Amino acid sequence: MRSPAPRALLATASVAVALAAADTYVVVLALTDMMAGVGLGIDNLQRATPIISGFLLGYIAVLPLIGRLADLVARQRVLLACLAIFVVGSAVTALAVELPVLVAGRVIQGVGGGGLVPATLAIVAQLWDRDRRGTPLGVVGAVQELGSVLGPVLGAAVLAVADWRAIFWLNAVLGVLLTAAVVAVGGGVPSRPRALPVVVSLVAAVVGWLALAAPAALATDVTLGVPFVPFEESTSRLATPVGVVALALVVAAAALWVRGSWAVLRRADLLGALLLGGALGCVVLTFAASDPEKEVVGPLGFALLPVAAVLAGLYLLQHRRAEHPLVPRGVVVGRTRWSLLVSLCVGVALVAVIVDVPLLARLVHTESETVAAFVLVRFLVAVPVGALVGGWSLRRLGDGLVSGVGLALAAVGLVLMSTWGRGSLEEWTSTAVLALVGLGIGLALAPVNNAALADSPQDAHGTASALVVVARMIGMVVGLALLTAIGLHQYYAVVAALPDQTDTQALLDAAVVQVEYVFRGAAVAAAVGAVASVALGLTRRP
Fold first, then answer.
1. For 478-496, what is each residue's pLDDT tens digit?
2. Nearest to residue 21, comparing CAs of 144, 136, 197?
3. Which of 179, 63, 56 lies closest to 115, judged by CA?
């Protein structure tokens, strides 16, 4: 189904992508308040890790399935479904007063937010011809990175006038408005859903709100409050009669939706999606839940990594035997394979800058977290600019040339950043270098998507887009853990060689060495990505 207003649909879908991207970063500012909201003190920071890793888990693990569904049903329908999931996750997060519910809300948010990206990229591939989709792809990449810039700003603005729950209620409201906008500009709802799943879902939403919100007017009433009384000694709002009913309705609604979509899910290879999603989830939990100061992998990493390997092996067997595998045969071939490698390298370089530039600023420039964050903005603003320029450049230049030049510039900038120390961030050249790295990384965003879409079958564009996003996110999660481990190894080596290990300034300089090695590792990743970009083609293909 082609939209009567493709540019308006692209703009609306891109705003949705930006909203999901902003939600990834907004939690950083609100984390301590969110912990307090579910009864965790600041000394329980490790227990709060699932608040962040849960979002990543939902974001990454379900991406291949959502990408495949975008190839089998109307892509506008997938976009609407992802927005609905994002709204539900936002509402659950906003209502949470206990950690398991909060984490569940974040996982649901991740599923919806992550699915918006491949659905939007697939819409671009559907609405624009191969030789004209460079600029739209650049727009999607730009707004996604713009969301990372606006996320902390939005969070700070909301926290200045309200509590952390308002952030997620705002997400829910914006999600509903965007859903209406997609329906309006996309030519209507692609297919009319069956009444029973919709009715059960609405009832589940109302009862779920009652269970999680526990309105005082009802919960404290002598008669009406009976359904809100917890079972035995439990304090959970779900361990109540109304909570059990809400959970039963949620399960019933999910079963009805799955039953109605069973034919499509079978064609999408649901078993393969579970196996591959499980493998990706194990990788995410292994590295995202780790404490970089103590370990490369998380507490369960040595158990999860073997499980990931087994699940990946089982997926490969399923891929061979399935008539219609999750990742269709003929997708991960040609330039698509190189696009995945380049996207992985982009993720490594990107996360190194996002995490370690503020750290370096705190070490050598300022004690203020806000000032340190503004140092990072010099980089973040340049990324969407680079994405737009990169997409526009594909009108005349090859994917590999644009991506290769961009990552080569990023590698040069990262090498320069690895020499920074005290006083470096006070010089105007630091702004130029950060802008150079941001511009370079941004230049690579559209070409990798363009090459993957061009070399994959038309009926597998959603899957190809999802794989490119997965590669980038895995690069970010695993790259951060590995580069931090390398940097910490150097830090401890420098500290061990100090004649006076109580010298504060010497310890500060050792911490700077750690950051320098992270930037060096990111420079290597960017350089590998630049070399791999050659395989994407240096000249524009007709």
1. 888 888 888 887 877 887 7
2. 144
3. 63
